[in-house]
Amino acid sequence: MWPKAIIHLDMDAFYAAVEVLDNPSLRGKPVIVGGSQKRGVVSSASYESRRFGVHSAQPIAAAMRLCPKGVFLPVRMFRYREVSDQVFEIFDRFTPLVEPLSIDEAFLDVTGSVRLFGPPEEIARIIKRAVIQEIGITVSAGVAPTKFVAKIASDLQKPDGLTVVPEEKVKAFLEPLSIDKLWGVGKVTQEALALLGVRTIGDLSRLSLEVLESNFGKHGTHLHLLSQGVDDRDVEVSREVKSIGHEETFAHDVLDMEAIRKELLSLATKVSRRLRCEGFVGKTVTLKVKYNDFVQITRSETLPEVTEDGGEIFRRSWGLLDKTEVGKRPVRLLGISVSHLYPQGEDRQLSLFQPDAASPRRRKLNLALDRISEKFGEDGILPGTLVKK
């Protein structure tokens, strides 16, 4: 009997898997999704590419050295979100208690679903089968009485894995695992624990609470509880989206204002597409600048009315440059985000002089452009100044 049953579901190499789904000729090939070749990073790597040492967050340049015959593709966030929504619709069939962690993973509390669908491990199998049959991608699952253990379990037999840890086996499951599996254990904490002779979760579980608290304070209490398999957190159904943004690192540090202008226009276009894709409009535009010495600043402006229009977001971002040293100091990175979000179509008191960017006609045009971009890629239709000559 499961007093509480949590499933952690993680879509395997998600971005790369969607690329293979859309182009089956890529199946079995080392597919790598990420940014530009010079300063971009890997967002997703197929399991074929991982055999060469390629992994997420790795510089694209390093990935190309490790896997020169890899298939390198740009990020298509609009498409990934579309597939993610389809997968989450399947999750929702089995429980209303779904907590998204990101576009490709979620916790499900299925404690109240067992009478209808069977034991938790069977529910996980049914979900995995539905995703592969209906969508065409694989999902790895971990089943446990806590979120912490379920997340660890889902990672152990990837891809297409299923690991089940009943309550009576939690401690035996955790015992041999490296302490870097614990949430909150980074390199510094790991080194400090090593000085105490701790290398596995089992080692940690045998240290007294007093020793851990004297060495790590409140964090020691957290480590003690996790080492015992204790995690009282519930699955949180609603997680508020606070902002939507995009940023790019230049291949070379930039002073030229024309290059800056084009990059801002490109960023504004991408952010506006994401806003519409996720069904939001926003009131605050934030410009992020990282100079070549890695000093980072942000400048923001709150608009009189909400927007999801790329032109409006670009104009506000361009105006915020006056509050920076862009053009005087070399720039390494630019980013734009929109916050103070509202669901598209939600009733709000509109200003008397509502800008044209928010008009239904303008929105229809933007949605039509989004459909073209989805069909032909992000470069399928662009503002004229972004077209490469």
What's the SSE blueprint?
Blueprint: E1 6-11, H1 14-22, E2 31-34, E3 42-45, H2 47-50, H3 60-66, E4 71-74, H4 77-92, E5 98-102, E6 105-109, H5 114-117, H6 120-134, E7 139-144, H7 147-154, E8 162-164, H8 170-174, H9 187-195, H10 201-205, H11 209-216, H12 218-227, E9 243-254, H13 257-278, E10 280-291, E11 296-307, H14 310-320, E12 331-343, H15 360-376
Parallel strand pairs: 2-4, 7-8
Antiparallel strand pairs: 1-6, 1-7, 2-3, 5-6, 9-12, 10-11, 10-12
Helix pairs in contact: 4-13, 11-12, 13-14
Description of the structure:
The chain has helices at residues 14-22, 47-50, 60-66, 77-92, 114-117, 120-134, 147-154, 170-174, 187-195, 201-205, 209-216, 218-227, 257-278, 310-320, 360-376; strands at residues 6-11, 31-34, 42-45, 71-74, 98-102, 105-109, 139-144, 162-164, 243-254, 280-291, 296-307, 331-343. With 389 residues, it is of the alpha+beta class. It has three domains: 1-164, Alpha-Beta Plaits (2-Layer Sandwich); 175-227, Orthogonal Bundle (DNA polymerase, domain 1); 243-386, Dna Ligase, domain 1. The protein has a five-stranded mixed beta sheet with strand order 5-6-1-7-8. A four-stranded antiparallel beta sheet has the order 9-12-10-11, with helices on one face. The chain is globular, with a radius of gyration of 24 Å. Residues 347-358 and 374-381 have low confidence and may be disordered.
